Amino acid sequence: MCACFARDSWRYAAPPAVVGLFLLPFSLVGAAVAFLAGGAALGFHRDPDRSPPGDGLLAPADGTVSVVREADGRLRLGVFMNLTDVHVNRAPLAGTVEDVTHSPGKHWPAFTKESDRNEKVHIEFEEYTVVLIAGAVARRIHPYVEPGDSVERGQRIGHISFSSRVDVIMPEGVEREDLRVEKGETVRAGETQLVAE
């Protein structure tokens, strides 16, 4: 697999490509539509390299900041990823994975309040937590890490197939006024500083 695509991306691109091959002798239009669908699925799962800045807590996802709120005494920031965003998610800080927990749930649109009840995967680190949340279209969350894994700042930790949301529950002591971004701003996984050190 080329490093420029997310893991398991061929499982989404291959079926329409196979259909296209089957349709080729019978319908050029049908085959073209199937090949385009396969290409779109592969393009959606692109995974470009990123260059983290020297310090700071980084965005875990590409997209738009859609959530900034207090939750159980900690600051929570959510990034909504639409269909055109890169959906590979990255570690905001270096650390060791303490737990990876899957929680079944609904599939509400990821930009709504109801999405708090959606299917999700919690990736727990010593100081912070990243929450991968499935959206209305996203039905597959693919964590790349396991308990005990050590990760670097900006390292790939998973991806979600199709539109969704990724939240980071900040380390204790991080306040709203420490944020370098606001709701509605666009961020890039592994490159945008959410909090400066």
UniProtKB/TrEMBL annotation:
Keyword Lipid biosynthesis applies: yes
Regions crossing the membrane: 17-44
Keywords, sorted A to Z: Cell membrane, Decarboxylase, Lipid biosynthesis, Lipid metabolism, Lyase, Membrane, Phospholipid biosynthesis, Phospholipid metabolism, Pyruvate, Transmembrane, Transmembrane helix, Zymogen
Gene Ontology molecular function: phosphatidylserine decarboxylase activity
GO biological process: phospholipid biosynthetic process
Keyword NAD annotated: no
Stated name of the protein: Phosphatidylserine decarboxylase
Organism: Halorientalis persicus
Lineage: Archaea, Methanobacteriati, Methanobacteriota, Stenosarchaea group, Halobacteria
